[in-house]
C-alpha cells in the first residue's frame, strides 16, 4: 500500500512538472474560470416557465456543450417553438447580461493562477461558448481581462465544443502548436474533445457537474478541484 501511494505521488509530481512546461493556456469561462453555471440553470427555469413548458430534466445536459445559436436551434426543434433561434438567443443574452455585469465571480484562486502563468511567460487565451458582450464586462470587473491576449467564441468557428475547432483556432491565434497548449475545461464533452485532439487537458471541478467527476478523471491529463492545486 505504501508503494502504491508513493507511485501515485510520483505520477502526480510528473503531471505537475509537465504542466509547468506548457507555452499556452486555453481557458473555458463558464464553470471553469467563472462561477456562473448556476445562472444558466435559473435562466432555463424562467425561460420554460414563461412558455408553460415543464423543464425537462435532461435539457441542461443536452445543450451544455452547444454554443448559443446551436442551443437555440435545438430548443426550437425539440419543443416546436414558433420563435426564431435568433429571438431566443437575444432573450437569453438579455436575461444573463445583468448577472454577468454585476454578480458573476471567479472560481477560487483562478486570478492567482493566471498571475503565475503571466510571470512564467505563458500565453493565455479564452475559448468560450459565451458572447463577448456577456463575459467582457465580467472579466474586467473581476480584474483578469488583462491576462488574455486572445479570445475565441464558438460562434466564430461555427461549431460547439464537441469539435476541437475552437481550441485549434485559439492555439493558432496564440501562435502555438496544440502540443504546447493546455486546455482548461469543466464539462466532460469538452475535456474529452480537447484531449483527443492532442491538447494537454485539465479538467476543472464544478459543483454543477460533480456527477461527471469519474469521467473527467479518466478522460483528462489532470483533474483538479481548485486552481490552488496548480504550480
Given the C-alpha coordinates, what overall shape results?
A: globular
Percent helix? 40-55%
Characterize the largest beta sheet: strand count, sense, and whether it forms a barrel. Answer: 6 strands, parallel
Residue stretches low in confidence (pLDDT < 50, at least 5 long) are 1-11
| Beta-strand percent range | 5-15%
Spatially, the strands of the biggest sheet line up as 3-2-1-4-5-6
* CATH H-level superfamily of the largest domain: HAD superfamily/HAD-like
C-alpha-based Rg, rounded: 18 Å
Can you offer a commentary on this structure?
The chain has helices spanning 2-19, 37-50, 59-63, 68-79, 85-102, 110-119, 132-141, 154-157, 165-174, 188-196, 213-218, and strands spanning 24-27, 123-128, 150-153, 181-185, 200-204, 222-224. It folds into 2 domains: 11-36 and 105-229, Rossmann fold (3-Layer(aba) Sandwich); 38-102. Helix 2 (37-50) crosses helix 5. 35% of the residues are buried. The chain has a 6-stranded parallel beta sheet with strand order 3-2-1-4-5-6, sandwiched between helices. Helix content is 50%, strand content 12%.
Layout of SSEs?
Elements lengths: L1 H18 L4 E4 L9 H14 L8 H5 L4 H12 L5 H18 L7 H10 L3 E6 L3 H10 L8 E4 H4 L7 H10 L6 E5 L2 H9 L3 E5 L8 H6 L3 E3 L7
Amino acid at each position: 500500500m505504501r508503494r502504491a501511494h508513493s507511485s501515485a505521488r510520483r505520477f502526480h509530481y510528473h503531471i505537475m512538472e509537465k504542466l509547468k512546461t506548457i507555452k499556452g493556456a486555453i481557458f473555458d469561462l463558464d464553470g471553469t474560470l467563472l462561477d456562473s453555471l448556476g445562472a444558466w440553470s435559473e435562466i432555463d427555469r424562467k425561460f420554460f416557465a414563461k412558455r408553460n413548458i415543464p423543464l425537462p430534466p435532461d435539457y441542461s445536459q443536452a445543450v451544455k456543450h452547444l454554443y448559443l445559436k446551436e442551443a437555440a436551434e435545438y430548443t426550437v426543434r425539440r419543443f416546436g417553438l414558433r420563435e426564431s433561434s435568433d429571438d431566443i438567443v437575444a432573450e437569453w443574452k438579455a436575461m444573463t447580461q445583468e448577472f454577468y455585469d454585476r454578480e458573476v465571480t471567479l472560481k477560487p484562486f483562478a486570478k492567482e493562477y493566471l498571475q503565475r502563468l503571466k510571470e512564467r511567460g505563458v500565453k493565455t487565451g479564452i475559448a468560450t461558448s459565451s458572447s463577448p458582450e456577456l463575459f467582457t464586462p465580467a472579466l474586467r470587473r473581476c480584474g483578469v481581462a488583462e491576462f488574455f491576449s486572445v479570445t475565441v467564441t464558438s460562434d466564430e468557428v461555427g461549431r460547439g465544443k464537441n469539435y476541437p475547432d475552437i481550441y485549434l483556432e485559439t492555439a493558432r491565434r496564440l501562435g502555438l502548436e496544440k502540443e504546447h497548449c493546455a486546455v482548461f475545461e469543466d464539462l466532460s464533452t469538452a475535456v474529452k474533445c480537447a484531449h483527443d485532439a492532442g491538447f494537454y487537458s485539465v479538467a476543472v471541478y464544478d459543483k454543477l457537474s460533480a456527477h461527471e467527476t469519474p469521467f473527467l478523471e479518466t478522460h483528462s491529463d489532470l483533474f483538479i478541484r481548485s486552481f490552488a492545486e496548480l504550480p
